[in-house]
Amino acid sequence: MLLRDRVVVISGVGPGLGRGLALRCAAAGADVVLGARTEARLAEVAKEVAGLGRRAVTVRADITDEASCRGLAEAALESFGRVDGLVNNAFAIPPLTDLGSVDLDAVRAGLETNVLGTLRLTRLLTPALTEHAGSVVMINSAVLRHSRRTFGAYKMAKSALLALAQSLATELGPQGVRVNTVAPGYIWADNLKWYFDHLAKKRGVTAQQVYDETAATTDLRRLPEPDEVADAVVFLLSPLARAVTGQCLDVNCGEWHH
Fold first, then answer.
1. Looking at the annotation, which residues are catalytic?
2. How far apart are alpha carbons 131 and 85 in whole angstroms?
3. Residues in CB range of 48: below 8 A, 6 or more apart
4. Domains of the chain: which residue ranges?
5. pLDDT at 15
6. Quick one: three-class SS letters along 228-255?
7. What is the pLDDT of residues 74-132, one digit of tens each?
8. Over the stretch 196-231, which tens digit does the pLDDT of each residue have?
9. For 83-112, b where at least 16 C-beta lie within 10 A, e where not — what string?
10. Which SUPFAM superfamilies would you find in this protein's record (predicted)?
11. Residue 82 near residue 128, CB atoms below 8 Å
12. Burial of 243 (0-12, 13-18, 19+ CB in 10 A)
């Protein structure tokens, strides 16, 4: 119960990592405020949180919109009167195209969600986080650790998000607010399972073979599951990490070392 009776706001709640974040925070004792653009997903996750004995407030929210962000922040405070943690999980993947040909408007849209939207929501909740010496966790990506072709625009956005987290750690530290980052690699959830099935059919092999080949590139010979990434976030939100700020924790089963 590392987060007993705390309140955690989570953006970008979907069926994969977003769901895992909500459930692991609830299992650790927190009530949660869940934001996403798809209301049906929010309702499903809220039911699961209630099944763990914690409260969940759901808000249809788009972090690229100021009024929508403000509504999410206000709902958290109206429902619980406090915010102890913020997990910025909402993201958008820009076109996976070489930088020499990528559409710049699409790059701007990616930056709006991944960086500016995250900053917008964090700023709105900073007064509440300051009041309770809160913690912010940014969900980043292992794209930080490589320079593969076609990932340039995505790496730009996620690198900017890392810089944002580090700078906010410096700005908000004197107010008692910690800001950290978790960078997952592959996450063994529905989207990746679908993709591996797709690759397997194209190659005429089994999905298990695709998994095994990918897992062989990691030290632990497996791929992280959503709950394992979420547990790292719970740690950073909790008092166990009370002296940790400005850091990036890679959760990738040893695919990349940093």
1. 154
2. 11
3. 19, 22, 23
4. 7-187+227-251, 188-223
5. 85
6. HHHHHHHHHHCHHHCCCCCCEEEECCCC
7. 999 999 999 999 999 999 889 999 999 999 999 999 999 999 999 999 999 999 999 99
8. 999 999 999 999 999 999 999 999 999 999 999 999
9. bbbbbbbbbbebeebeeeebeeeebebbbb
10. NAD(P)-binding Rossmann-fold domains
11. yes
12. exposed
Q: In the chain, count H helices and then E strands.
A: 9, 7
Task: Supply angle C-alpha 185, 119, 47, rounded to 5.
Answer: 65
CA–CA gap between residue 118 and residue 182 (Å, rounded): 14
In this structure, the chain runs to a length of: 258
Q: Going by DSSP bridges, is the β-strand pair 178-184/248-251 parallel, antiparallel, or unpaired?
A: parallel
Q: 114: which residues sit within 8 A by CB, 6+ positions away?
A: 91, 92, 157, 158, 160, 161
Locus of tokens 């976030």: 233
Pairwise CA distance, residues 201 & 51, whole Å: 38
